[in-house]
Design goal:
The protein has 22 helices and 19 strands. With 695 residues, it is of the alpha+beta class. Strands 13, 14, 15, 16, 17, 18 and 19 form a seven-stranded mixed beta sheet that branches. The protein has a six-stranded mixed beta sheet with strand order 4-10-9-8-11-12. A three-stranded antiparallel beta sheet has the order 2-1-3. Helix 3 crosses helix 11, helix 4 runs antiparallel to helix 9 and helix 13 packs across helix 17. The longest helix is centred in the C-terminal third of the chain and has 30 residues. It is globular, with a radius of gyration of 32 Å.
Length: 695
């Protein structure tokens, strides 16, 4: 590990003009390329105290052994040079997008004497016109088959073309009029090229001209009583319309735009791009990348723009690019795009209307792509086994944690405090065993006390059920065996845990939960199985609270850890320093997936609970108070209870609430105060673990 101070340049050496800089390792390999408006200011940021750097930046500067820079005239030149060097050196610490699959394109080889229509994959070639990418190659072939009726362009390979020219006989497509047969001289090279260019124009979105021309010729042929020709023209127009229907209209006619959406977590990011031409989605593609550098959404967008349009010119760069976040150097990026297109390019965030709705669709695709990417890793048996082994090794466990339970707390400004418990067995989610908790006994944003209560309630229930059955305890081996459809014989007795210790501070289980702890076949209910590992969403305080709850119950054979969101650090009880798993670790991916699932389950329940409270609030009786202003009031004060305690002047501070409306709200809340069951639900009704446990 290198000391950055050993190669730090003196401040006077670095110019304060725009430029591009490179970090090299001890072997002179370029490991990072960046650009800056002000080289002196940007490069100096890398040489501050290591403790203040992002972990990924810290890793880069300690791997590097030297830094060098190149001065350019403008920020646009810096952007172009950065892209060129990233392509040339492939630095390990730069974001590098990789396609999540190989996408097929519809290609027209305009660089040949007789252009050919075909399916192409891989790197783009000069002189070839591309359309797409498409999700499947068969979709391209279906579209081409429909369009060859009207644009009979050559589709055969070079070998087939030469053989037909040698024998003087066209292929089958030439006989059925789906090829103009330039191989045998039915059309001249100029006529065939004109057909290919018309084909490209139609695929580029200029469809109305050809449809109207065919319909006009059809009408004229019918008037001249050339019914066979009219019928053929009718069928040609129908074929083009069917080809158009394969891509739905999503935006106004003649709109050319690319929409880019990003879904990300601490370690990875997925991008989805929709290519809209002529108002229709003409192609879709996706990328997944490791976040090897400290980069935010705006930075990911800028890198995506470089990769999308770095090799493109002219119409391949659309008039409009819609993004979720604007790059930091917006002016430079916009100018760079305009230079590549040859005219102005609008780079912006959609705010309303059809474009915002379509952006939401692209965003959902990005989120699904990221989830699918993670699921593929989690679904592989070998990968799951390696992940469990890495977790056991990192946490010092004797065996792999076959059952993992993760807990998360969710609330809105201290109100509607809920918690979730998700279960993973053998690295896979067991949704039938998820549980939801409502936190009671105190109010406020105290995640530590909430975590202590939830862990205590769950494992007090476990001890009670184990005491009631009294026959055997589910060991890790028995827990694995329980995944089978049924057990023929009861498992052998395992080591018993220390008996339950009275814990008066913990809430008792309600009578409603006194259910039979046995399944129909005599096995204990799954909720009675202890996990080998408890994961909490949080850092050292949450881990300490969970461990304290287990200690109060006398449980000492269940491991506890916490996963902090910010740096993905794993915290253990009584340890001052976290366990840092490698970024590429399968164990870290599994822990992150478990944590994210617990967060999703908790926030979904909390939102549903809050929506139910809002729907049944006394604010419904206030005349002229719509849903938007009602939600604004609840969001501002946090709950109906706190809103009732507010003065009229405080209510008026909410945007959109005038004094007359504030007085109406105060009167309605005061009238509902004596006996208002709807208001009481603002504090949260009590529901124990098994209520609505299945997700």
């Amino acid at each position: 590990m290198a000391d950055p101070s050993s190669y730090r340049p003196s401040p006077g050496q670095i110019p304060d003009s725009p430029g591009v800089y490179k970090f090299r390792d001890e072997h002179r390999r370029v490991i990072y390329v960046g650009k800056a408006k002000n080289l002196r200011q940007r490069v100096a940021n890398y040489f501050q105290d290591l403790a203040g750097l992002h972990p990924r930046t810290r890793s880069m500067v300690t791997t590097a052994a030297s830094v060098e820079w190149t001065v350019v005239s403008t920020e646009v030149e810096a952007l172009q040079l950065e892209y060129t060097w990233i392509k040339e050196f492939d630095p390990r610490f730069n974001v590098k997008y990789r396609d999540d699959k190989s996408y097929p394109y519809l290609a027209v080889t305009l660089n040949e004497e007789f252009p050919r229509v075909q399916v192409m994959r891989g790197a783009k070639k000069k002189g070839v016109r591309y359309f797409g990418p498409y999700g499947h190659a068969w979709a391209i072939r279906e579209t081409v088959d429909l369009m060859l009726r009207v644009f009979p362009v050559r589709t055969c390979s070079a070998g087939v073309f030469k053989n037909a020219a040698r024998t003087g006989r066209p292929c089958l497509l030439g006989y059925i009029d789906k090829c103009s047969a330039p191989c045998v001289g039915r059309v001249t090279p100029e006529e065939h090229r004109e057909l290919a260019e018309d084909f490209c124009d139609f695929m580029a979105g200029r469809t109305g001209t050809y449809i109207r021309r065919l319909e006009k010729d059809m009408t004229q042929a019918a008037e001249e009583m050339e019914y066979e020709r009219a019928a053929r023209l009718r069928d040609d127009a129908g074929a083009l319309k069917r080809a158009m229907e394969k891509s739905a209209v999503v935006l106004a006619d003649a709109t050319d735009a690319d929409l880019i959406a990003v879904a990300e977590d601490e370690l990875e990011a997925a991008l989805q791009i929709f290519h809209v031409r002529g108002g229709r989605v003409r192609g879709q593609r996706g990328w997944v990348t490791d976040k090897v550098e400290a980069v935010d959404t705006a930075g990911l967008v800028e890198h995506a723009l470089q990769q999308l349009y770095g090799e493109e010119r002219g119409d391949a760069v659309p008039k409009e690019v819609l993004v979720p976040a604007l790059p930091e150097d917006l002016e430079a990026v916009s100018q760079w795009l305009a230079e590549r297109r040859g005219s102005q390019v609008s780079l912006r965030i959609p705010q309303r209307g059809d474009k915002k709705d379509l952006m939401a669709t692209v965003q959902r695709n990005a989120q699904q792509a990221l989830g699918l990417h993670k699921t593929k890793r989690a679904s592989d048996l070998t990968t799951r086994s390696r992940a469990l082994e890495e977790i056991a090794e990192a946490l010092g466990l004797d065996t792999a944690p076959l059952r993992i339970e993760c807990y998360d707390i969710s609330h809105l400004q201290g109100d509607d405090v809920v918690a979730s418990m998700v279960v993973f067995e053998d690295g896979l989610a067991r949704k039938s065993e998820y549980r939801r908790f409502q936190i009671k006994g105190f109010e406020g944003q105290d995640d530590v006390r909430s975590m202590h209560e939830v862990i205590g309630r769950r494992f007090k229930r476990y001890l009670q059920e184990k005491e009631r059955t009294g026959e055997w305890e589910a060991t890790p081996e028995a827990a694995r065996g329980a995944l089978a459809p049924a057990l023929t014989d009861p498992p052998p007795a395992g080591p018993t845990a220390t008996g339950p210790v009275p814990a008066p501070a913990l809430p008792a289980v309600s009578p409603a939960d006194e259910t039979d702890p046995r399944e129909d076949d005599g096995r204990p209910k799954r909720f009675a199985y202890p996990p080998q590992l408890v994961v909490v969403d949080g850092g050292q305080p949450q881990v300490a609270a969970a461990k304290r709850a287990l200690d109060e119950l006398g449980i000492d054979d269940i491991a506890v850890c916490g996963l902090a969101k910010r740096l993905e650090e794993v915290w253990l009880p009584d340890d001052d320093d976290p366990v840092v798993l490698p970024r590429s670790s399968e164990g870290l991916y599994l822990l992150q997936r478990v944590r994210d699932e617990a967060h999703r389950f908790a926030i979904t329940y909390q939102r549903a609970k809050r929506a139910k409270r809002i729907r049944s609030s006394p604010l419904d009786d206030v005349a002229g108070l719509g849903e938007t202003r009602k939600q604004a009031l609840i969001k501002h004060f946090g709950s109906v209870k706190k809103l009732r305690q507010a003065t009229i002047e405080e209510i008026c501070e909410v945007p959109g609430i005038g004094r007359r409306t504030a007085e109406s709200v105060a009167v309605a809340l005061a009238a509902a105060a004596p006996a208002a069951p709807a208001v009481n639900t603002a504090t949260g009704e009590i529901m124990e673990e098994d209520d609505g446990g299945t997700s």
